[in-house]
Amino acid sequence: MKNKSLVSINDFTREEQLRVLEVAREFEKNPVQNILQDYVVASLFFEPSTRTRLSFESAVNRLGGKVIGFSEASNTSVKKGESLRDTILTIASYSDLIVMRNPVEGSARFASEISSVPIINAGDGANQHPTQTLLDLYSILKTQGTLDNLHVAFVGDLKYGRTVHSLVIALCNFNTTFHLVSPVELKLPSSVKMHIKERNLTYHQYTDMTEVIPQADVLYMTRIQRERFSDPLEYERNKNSFNLHRDMITETKENFRVLHPLPRVNEIDINVDASPKAYYFEQALNGVFVRQALMALILGVR
Length: 302
Ligand code: CP
Prior knowledge:
This protein is α/β, with parallel strands linked by helices and 302 residues long. It has helices at residues 14-29, 51-62, 84-92, 107-114, 130-144, 162-171, 190-198, 232-238, 280-298, and strands at 40-45, 66-70, 97-102, 119-124, 151-155, 177-181, 203-206, 218-221, 257-259. α2 packs across α9 and α5 (130-144) packs across α9 (280-298). The longest helix has 19 residues, at 280-298. Phosphoric acid mono(formamide)ester binds at residues 49-52, 123, 132, 261-263.
C-alpha cells in the first residue's frame, strides 16, 4: 500500500482492506505514537465535514505529524479562480499526503493522476467515500466478529449516498446478502447493483424497513441528503421517509447493531442512542484508528 492513492474502495484489494483493519486494531490499543513526526498531511475540504476531517486531523496529531489545509475553499485562491489542477500541484509540493473532499464526482481520481503524493478520497460528490467504508468494515468486524455471510440492510438515500456505494462494493467480497430499503426515487444505482450481480450475490429491494429489521445483522441507516438534490421538490417528497424508533428494534437478532455514517437528521430518533444496539458514535470513533492505519501504511511507516 506504500505510496498508493485510495480513490475508490476497489483501489485496495480485499487483502489490503483487511490489512488496514488489522493495523487499525493495533492503533486502537495504542493510539498515541510518534511515527509521523517527519510528515506533513494536507487536509483539503471543499465540502463541509465534521467526522472525516477532524478524525483525520486527530489521527495525524496523535501520531506526531503535522496538518496543513483548509475547511473552506472560499478562503483559498480557488476563490480567485484557481483550478483544482493548480491547487493540487502546489499543495503536493508542500506535503507528503493529501486528504481531499470535493463535491465533484471524479475529482479525487483526477487529483490522483496529477499529484506527486498519494491522494486519499474523503468523499467526491455522490460517488465514493472509501475511508468511511474501511471504518464501516472495522465496525462491522468488531460488532459481528466476522465480515462473512452477513445480512446487511441499507436504509435511506441509496441513490446519492456515497458511503452506501463504497460499502456495498466492499461487502461484495464477503458473501453479503443485501437488503436495500429506499424511496422508489432513491434506489441504489444500477452501476452499484452490477457489482452485486457480478458476484452472484442476493439483494432484495424494499420501501419499508420494518420487515427487514428482524432479518438483519447490521442496519446501516443513512440521511436523505438535501445538498444532493437538484430538484427541491424531490427532496421534500422524500425527506421524512424513514424514522427509526427504539421500539422498532426490540425483536432483533442478538448481534444486531445500528450503524450510521452520520450526520443524522431525523432518520434515527435520539431514543435509540441509549440502546446497546446503537453503534454509530463508536463507529465514528473507530474512524480515528482506521485513518491512523491507512496513513501509516500509505506513508510506509507500518
Ligand atoms: N461520515 C461522514 O463523512 O461525516 P462528515 O460529513 O461529518 O465528515
